[in-house]
Amino acid sequence: MHPLDNVIWNALTTRQAGFAQGSGESRRFQADVSPLTAFAEQSASGYRSLGQLIGKNGVAGLFLDHPFEPRSDWEYLAGAPLLQMVCTTGNGHVSAKAQIVELGTKDSPEMLELTALTKPGPFGTRTHELGTYLGIRQDGKLVAMAGERLKVPGFTEVSAVCTHPDHLGKGYARTLMLEVMHCIRERGETPFLHVRQDNVRAIELYKKLGFSERKLGHYAVLRNI
After folding, report:
1. pLDDT, tens digit, for every residue of 174-184?
2. How would you label 181-205 residue by residue, b for 16+ Cβ within 10 Å and e otherwise?
3. Domains contained in the chain, CATH given
């Protein structure tokens, strides 16, 4: 299996095992880190194991190879086709870093506020612990950020790329992504990311930065009933 196949499972059973809960056929991130979950295989036993892990009325975020098929013990809440993209080129690097700041625990409330407004994907109070997160401030306010989320052998995901609506068009997302990608490459790893298939504007940016499409999957938010 390629490390980027069943990537959440691979992350939770390798480099990010320290953030994992569960055993056997299913895993989940600690709840305040991320709602993402996974099972070894998209099968009846996989769903059963995950249901036991999260409990009744528990909510799971899954990356699936195929669209979710209705199941009597699961309620589909939301989801979308999801592109996985990988950058194998060395395009670009930000040389002027004065406006870029590293984000941490003290910045978590602002990071949550920005992600709640821009909705780049699920973000929790401890998501920033998964890797390096960088931001740009204007007049002291956090207006853009990007960071690292899933980590598997040889690869790190660029995630939470977002810009406040009042500051779009200034190149902040590109600037931050290039710096995060540089940090990843400095460790000898390859950047990858996930993006909704209908997010045309973001996909165009990612392609300009050297990302290419690797596979089409599906994101699903499910409730165990």
Report:
1. 999 999 999 99
2. bebbeeeebebbbbbbeeeeebbeb
3. 7-82 (no CATH), 85-214 (3.40.630.30)
